[in-house]
Amino acid sequence: MTARVSFDFTGTTALITGGTSGIGHAIATLFRDAGAHVSITGTKPTAAEYDTNLSGMAYHQLQITDPDAVDALALRFTELDVLVNNAGANFPGGLDESKPDGFEASVAVNLTGPYRLTVGLRRALKASTAPGGASVVNLASMSALRAVPLVPGYGAAKAGVICVTRNLAVKWAPMGIRVNAVAPGAIDTPMTAPMHLAQELVDAELTHIPLRRFGSVGDIAPTVAFLCTEQSGYTTGAVFVVDGASDCV
Question: Which residue has the higher pLDDT, 143 or 194?
Answer without folding.
Answer: 143
